[in-house]
Design brief:
Elements lengths: L1 H17 L4 E6 L4 H12 L13 H5 L10 E8 L12 E2 L8 H20 L4 E4 L7 H7 L4 E2 L5 E2 L7 E8 L19 H5 L5 E2 L3 E2 L5 H7 L16 E3 L3 H4 L19 H5 L2 H6 L2 H7 L9 H13 L6
Parallel strand pairs: 3-10
Antiparallel strand pairs: 1-2, 2-7, 4-7, 5-6, 8-9
Helix pairs in contact: 1-4
């Protein structure tokens, strides 16, 4: 049985590489007791802002067996999104993860293929893949899978490649030999991310106040207005924010990805703020049909633009 667990893990790692994932780790599927306590405290303190969905399915978030009956292993996959190109200097800032095709579409397809090929080689396997849209604590599983540590900015940091990665999780009833958890924290006394955060959303103890985060305000917040107390604090960010990652010393090891699906949409690189204000809703829907920007919708993008640039432009 142990031999099969080792051989199957080798198969898993080869399959991950074949499908374009940059790192793959395995952890034993078990109840996340310490994470449950932290999540409960985070929610109780209102760090999730208006993201009420974070309160839902609490038990599912910390118990993989409730998502996949008989779960034995949790496979964590990292998918590099660090771009080789940057936006024009006068362009409203967009988080690097959103430069190309919506990663939910890209990675979800890869997870389906992963399970299909796994079943073809191993036999009947019960499993489910998740990518940032289900009740899974993917960063905790990345830590347990030996892929990195959780930085002060809340991101998983890989010692060899930084933090510009999407995290995908595959929960399965296939018994696999687990990897060693990541035991060391290499952030040390560095506080660059804390010092650089424009809205002071990074708190001591690796706690993020989501209700203060620029990404929350420009993507998750669905209100017609953004809190005026944050006026002039967004530092040009129109969709998401990379500040805490951009200043992280470990991201000097980030290398541009080679995933064609994530190649930047030309408009994201080149549109000036004037161009964005002149963009019609019809054009927005066509150009960003397969982009993460559609999460904010046209109305949300306009709201963000007006908040960031004030009354410089008229609707």
């Amino acid at each position: 049985m142990l031999l099969n667990a080792v051989l199957n893990k080798s198969l898993i790692k080869d399959l991950a590489k074949k499908l374009g994932f940059d790192f793959c780790g395995v952890a034993k599927a078990e109840y996340l007791d310490a994470d449950a306590a932290r999540l409960e405290k985070w929610l109780r303190n209102g760090r999730h802002g208006n993201m009420q969905y974070m309160e839902n399915h609490f038990d599912l978030r910390v118990n993989p067996s409730l998502l996949v009956p008989g779960a034995k292993s949790v496979i964590t996959l990292l998918f590099n999104y660090y771009p080789s190109q940057v936006q024009a200097e006068d362009a409203p800032k967009i988080s690097k993860y959103a430069y190309g095709q919506d990663y939910h579409e890209v990675i979800r397809a890869k997870l389906h293929e992963f399970l299909f090929e796994l079943r073809a080689q191993v036999g009947e396997v019960n499993g489910r893949g998740f990518v940032d849209s289900a009740p899974v604590l993917e960063r905790s599983w990345a830590l347990r899978s030996g892929l990195g540590w959780i930085g002060k900015n809340g991101n998983v940091i890989n010692k060899q490649a930084g933090s510009f990665f999407f995290i995908a999780t595959l929960i399965t009833d296939l018994k696999l030999e687990p990897d060693e958890p990541y035991a060391k924290d290499y952030c040390g006394s560095c506080t660059r991310c804390i010092d650089a955060c424009p809205t002071e959303a990074i708190l001591p103890g690796k706690e993020i106040d989501g209700s203060k985060c620029i990404s929350y305000h420009t993507i998750e917040l669905k209100a017609a207005m953004i809190d005026p107390n944050y006026k002039d604090k967004f530092d040009g960010w129109m969709f998401g924010c990379d500040t805490c990652q951009d200043v992280c010393p470990w991201n000097r090891f980030s290398k541009p990805h080679n995933h064609k699906e994530l190649e930047p949409i030309a408009e994201i690189l080149n549109l000036s703020k004037e161009d964005w204000f002149e963009l019609s809703e019809e054009t927005f829907k066509v150009v960003f049909k397969h982009s993460s920007l559609k999460r904010s919708k046209y109305s949300g993008i306009l709201r963000n633009l007006h908040f960031v640039y004030g009354d410089t432009f008229e609707e």
